[in-house]
């Protein structure tokens, strides 16, 4: 069935890389498989027992099947475990469990509702933090859903939650809209946040690097780099991709850009665009908050800041190559954009300069940095992990 919520937003919220669903339905309609393909998952898997839906699916998804992006499996999902050998299941996946016997062509199957079999298969995976969606709570709340009698008169929903927490006791639950409101159970492991909600939540040591009347959210600030990057005593040229409310920018004026001739170039669109749904309809407010915060800096620090309002792919190429000492990447966390920002930054950084990536706990960021390191290993002198971030020292000697 199609989703009644924005699947791409859920993927980004929980940092899922791949998608697996049980039960396809008629692929000529806008089924959930199609929505998953549009939502940016690397691989989409679907297991379906109905032979007619399989044959139609081969036609509907022919292009994505040929690209090895869509994987259509003809089998009963009670056998799901034998189809989970693909290496992508080492990444966090979103599983949509929606298989049940509800039509004549598969009515002969003895397993009417294979949910517990599917959860057993997921339990066998190496990772235990996948996101799990269970459809049709309105039916699962009834005795013997779809005529499933193997388990007696159990409370199916409570049994499902119990089984999920055997996979990982840290799973939390929420509901999402489906055929009716609150018809989909979502089981997820909360992802640690890097946000300090406001100035008052910073340590007194870090507060001194921001204006005392700073307002808005504060992410990790440049003091986090002290263990990896020595403080300079010469003018520095610094670029920050993704400035948000300006917390890190303000701190830089007191740390790595403390020299009066240093410059900080802030690259951020501060507007909504199709490929970035976070802070939707809040970007204008975010920009006003950024301007308000940097305006609280002393005049001697304020003049160091140069604002470039636009997408990094348009702004960064305008800078001279080999002209920056530090580039901080904290923009769009989709892996395509992280890698693109990194490759552009490599051209702009000086020999011996540092590229820093924020939010390494984000799956897309982590994968992008791994790919960048693999592709440009000859340009990497040193890599240091620094509490949710990575600092890479660049070498450009021939």
Question: Key terms for this structure?
Answer:
2 domains, 398 residues, Rossmann fold, alpha/beta, elongated, 28% helix
Description:
This protein is of the alpha/beta class and 398 residues long. The chain folds into 2 domains: 7-188, Rossmann fold, CATH 3.40.50.150; 199-394, Rossmann fold, CATH 3.40.50.150. It is built from 14 helices and 14 strands. The chain has helices at residues 7-14, 32-38, 51-60, 62-66, 115-123, 137-140, 156-167, 204-207, 247-252, 283-294, 299-302, 312-315, 335-348, 363-375; strands spanning 18-22, 44-48, 70-74, 93-97, 131-134, 172-176, 184-188, 237-241, 263-267, 305-308, 324-329, 349-357, 380-385, 390-394. The strands form 2 sheets. The protein has a 7-stranded mixed sheet. The longest helix is centred in the C-terminal third of the chain and has 14 residues, at 335-348. It is elongated and about 75 Å long. The model has no long low-confidence stretch (mean pLDDT 90).
Give a quick summary of the entry.
It is built from 14 helices and 14 strands. The protein starts with 6 loop residues before the first helix and ends with a strand. The protein has 398 residues and is an alpha/beta fold.
Annotate the secondary structure layout:
Blueprint: H1 7-14, E1 18-22, H2 32-38, E2 44-48, H3 51-60, H4 62-66, E3 70-74, E4 93-97, H5 115-123, E5 131-134, H6 137-140, H7 156-167, E6 172-176, E7 184-188, H8 204-207, E8 237-241, H9 247-252, E9 263-267, H10 283-294, H11 299-302, E10 305-308, H12 312-315, E11 324-329, H13 335-348, E12 349-357, H14 363-375, E13 380-385, E14 390-394
Parallel strand pairs: 1-2, 1-4, 2-3, 4-5, 8-9, 8-11, 9-10, 11-12
Antiparallel strand pairs: 5-7, 6-7, 12-14, 13-14
